[in-house]
Amino acid sequence: MLGKIIKDWSKVDFGTVEGRAKLQGAFQYFVSAMDTVPELKTAYQAFTTSGDFPSQTLDIIEKFHAVDDFDEGWRLIFDVRDYTGTKKSGFRILDVQSGLTFNLIKTGEKVKIKKISGSDETINFDLYGGALGWDKVWIADEEYWLMEDTALEFRNSEYKARAQAFYDLIDAIPAGQNLAWQSSPDTLVAGTQGYLVSRDVATINKACENIIVDLKDANLGVNANSKFFLLYPIQLKSRIMRALDYLKQASSNSTKGVDYNIQPIATAMTSASDKYYVGIPGKKMKAGIRQNLTLSSFENVLAHTEGIAGFSRYAGVIGEVDQAQRCSVA
Description:
alpha/beta; five-stranded mixed sheet; 27% helix; elongated
């Protein structure tokens, strides 16, 4: 059988330690490819065979492609730092005036957010883990596609949980960062053409203005030329796109209504469908990856199963909540 992860399952020797090690190596590469191959991290999807393939898996693994796109938009918001080659237990963030970080979560639990403040805070890496099990009957009956489907779900669950933790951190910014839907600068009335979009444009501009003013003494280098992110739920996609494309006048040489450099980021993982976030990426929004998803095999004789357990370590923090505004659309 030819698979998406394994080139030829007939070459996998389940009866030897070496054969099982090769299988684990192939699945390890599969689940961690997006974290270890830079071009894949940039694309936020697609897995392809690389010249850096572990040599012990070359005889059983082929070119394969992800069947899912991953929501990795949070990487465009946080300053993501790679600690995988270190022995660090956490990372430091300085001069925290008002900040948030998340705590360890158990499988299926919602991330727990805590407030932080102080001149020097250490953000500890927590360990996250899970496991996938294969009924030995699948191996005996050569139902290898069930093993691959399980691995796909396991990998997708890991990336989703990590992304959700960082989006939850943004969702947790305090109510003091809320921005009401702004009035139409053109004094349009409800029901007239351009009313909704003009108010959305005014709200985006006001959010950027507020952030610049709030951070003017924070020594973060934020100004009118800074790049802003706009994180929005997919339910608002058409409204956000109209606002960002809105022209001040109905002519080809007119300037856009939004006065700032905005990078839109769509997601289905924020908590509200009628709110979006405008903010400055990076700076004191930090993410640290201490360990990418790492697999180890196990066997459960009583349950007649064997499988792979996976663990990762990471942490995130928003050290300055004034970097973002939560915007309303009504």
